Amino acid sequence: MDIATISGLLLGLGAVALSYHMEGGHLAAVLQAPAMVLVIFGTIGAATMTTSFKMLVSLPKIMKIAFFAPKLEPVQVIEEIVRLSEKARREGLLSLEKEFKSVKHGFLKKGIEFAIDGIEPSSLRNYLEIEMNYIAERHKAGATFFQKLGGFSPTLGIIGTVLGLVHALGTISDASKMASSIAGAFIATLWGISMANLLFLPISDKLRHRNEEEALVLEIIMEGVSSLASGENPRMIRAKLLGFLRPTAQKEK
Fold first, then answer.
1. Do 85 and 96 contact (CB within 8 A), yes or no?
2. What pLDDT digit, counting tens, does each position of 148-185 carry?
3. Would residue 150 be called left, alpha or beta, if left means φ above 0 and alpha means ψ between -120 and 50 degrees?
């Protein structure tokens, strides 16, 4: 579970709810089914039109990445690559077959597998670069989809407010009922803006952040596996890979 994502969402929602309550409002008044249906499902429908149904089906998986993806530790990946390179240098690349099952990172496992098969380091690097680009594009698609949700959500909220005002004007003969209808009409705008700025757009940025973190780890793996396949000195590999990290992270190592 990502503490920053969960706590940030709860803090944002809590701030809105608390401020509304301090103004004398009742939270039950905000939970209007028509406004929620229009904003939530209308926004998802509009965004889905711009992409594919496959993206809609993958929404739960994408949100799982934002909220529950484990933190990637580049230093641990570097140490694992160095350990494998030391074994390969002592006993040869074929000795890594015994270590293959213990490798947890799928991208690293794939690279080691090709190295064991004797693929040329240059060809190995080219393949890993293609795989990296594919992973980056896939993650970018998820972030872009949530960005679109954040763009459509306020607009759908305004549409809901307009529909509510049309209904309110139909009750112009009853002043008290009209005032209540006008107040309720703006709930849709509240939902649209809140969903965009407290959920959709933050998740989009979080997915981009996840992509940047994973891209760094994948670059480290690509460089490390290529160096391992070339038979470079493990110490040189460690120094080279640590160069990908910030100075503070290198000192922690």
1. no
2. 999 999 999 999 888 888 877 766 666 566 666 777 77
3. alpha
Q: How high is the pLDDT of residue 253?
A: 53
Parts of the chain with a pLDDT under 70: 1, 170-180, 247-253
Q: Residue 87 class from Cβ within 10 Å (0-12 exposed, 13-18 middle, 19+ buried)?
A: middle
Query: How high is the pLDDT of residue 146?
Result: 93
- Give just the sign of the alpha carbon dihedral 18, 19, 23, 27: negative
Q: Is the pTM of this model over 0.85?
A: no
- Distance between the two ends of the chain, CA-based, in angstroms? 25
Q: Which two tokens stand for residue 11?
A: 């803090």
Question: What pLDDT, on a 0 to 100 scale, did the predictor assign at position 158?
Answer: 92
Assign 3-class secondary structure to the chain: CCHHHHHHHHHHHHHHHHHHHHCCCCHHHCCCHHHHHHHHHHHHHHHHHCCCHHHHHCHHHHHHHHHHCCCCCHHHHHHHHHHHHHHHHHHCHHHHHHCHHHCCCHHHHHHHHHHHCCCCHHHHHHHHHHHHHHHHHHHHHHHHHHHHHHHHHHHHHHHHHHHHHHHHHCCCCCHHHHHHHHHHHCHHHHHHHHHHHHHHHHHHHHHHHHHHHHHHHHHHHHHHHHHHHCCCCHHHHHHHHHCCCCHHHHHHC
